[in-house]
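Q: I have 167 residues here and want to know how they pack in 3D. Can you give me a structure?
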Amino acid sequence: MHPRGATENPREYREDPIMKKSFILPLALTSAALFAMPGAALADDYYSEQKVVYHVNHNDEQRQMGAMRNIQNHINAVGADRMSIKVVMHGPGLSLLRHANDNQDLAAFIDQLKMQDVAFQICNNTVVNQNIDLANDLYDAAEGDIIPSGVAHLSHLQHQGYTYVRP
C-alpha cells in the first residue's frame, strides 16, 4: 500500500484531488483577505509618519512626470494623513509649473497632489533672476508658495527632520 498520491515509481506522482483542494482553498481565502484590505490598513502596520522633501531642479518634463508618480506612490504606500510632503523647485525645476500650463496630465497630477496637502514651493531667487510672472508663467502658483532660497530651504527642511528625495 502506497501513501496517498504515491505510486510504485518514485518519480511518478498522481495528484490527489482531496489534498489539492485542502491546500488551494486556504491559500485562496488568505489571498482574498489580503487583497480585500485597503492599502492604508497594510501601510499603517508597516510605515510610520513621514516628512519628505522632493527636490526638483531639472527641466526634463518626462522626469518631472516621473517625480509626480513617485510622490503619489509614496502617498499610496504611507497614507496622505501620515505624511508631510514638500516639493522644492528652483532653477530649471520651475519648468515643472511652466510645463503644467500646457500639459493637462501634469496639471492634473499637481492638482491631485495638492488636494492631498503636498506643498509646491518656489524659489524666490529663481523668480527674480528669471523675471517670472507667477500668475501668467507658472501653473497654479501664488505668493504663498514662494520661499526665499530653494537650496537654503532644502537644508532648513532637512534640519527639521524631512527626508531628502531627488527623483
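Q: Anything worth noting?
A: The longest strand covers residues 50-56. The radius of gyration is 25 Å.
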